[in-house]
Amino acid sequence: MNTDNPFTTDLEGEDDYPKRLLFARTRMSGRQRNYLDEHLPQWKINIDKAPQNLGGQNPADWFDKDYQDYALEIGFGGGEHLLGQARRNPQCGFIGCEPFPLGVAKLLRGIAQYDLTNIRIHCGDGRDIIDALADKTLCNLYLLYPDPWHKKKHHKRRFINTENLAAIHRVLTPRGGFLFASDIVPYVDWTLIHIRASGLFRLVAQSVEDWQAPPSQWFSTRYEEKAQREGRSTTYLRLQKLGGTIRKTGKK
Asked: Is 4 annotated as catalytic?
């Protein structure tokens, strides 16, 4: 493995659950590669070299100043939502995870364009960040349009599963928020089943209609706009952390 490439991932034993599989496209323009070469080192999180705290890391370790709150977006795509949140909430430090170099290059261009300093980037799997964090350190976590892994034999690769829900619950502050958005109905159903089985989150909705309305602070992404053009509507599941321990459900 080339350890100098932040987008390299080890796929050995990729059929064994729960291996973390990342399929990153590497074809970029010269300008996009320049953004990675010149700007990424300033904003990239290095989990191995970050200060270690007993019981996990505080996200403040990855920033050059303390923020009032910290939030995480897993799979930020082109960074539209992450940039919007960071601009609107300068008091919050945002961590973005994305394995695709093209998406990271777009985010870096936005950081430079808007002169933002409250974003840090992990070029890989969001679960690496979650595993590294101390308990109760994030006010919000966003999982927007994750890969649905349509084939039944690939469902075990979906991000929403019993293990990951427990990990998300662990790192959220009391009454912290978890926002899941998808335009794929079977994946929404899958998520609702796992959420209800876990007993770790409360759905913040008064009716089914609420699920079709984006949150008040919402920044649409290119993927969402494409889905709308193709006639697919988005379901927004706003979840709030509850106390308690995860239920044993057997199958994920």
From this structure: no
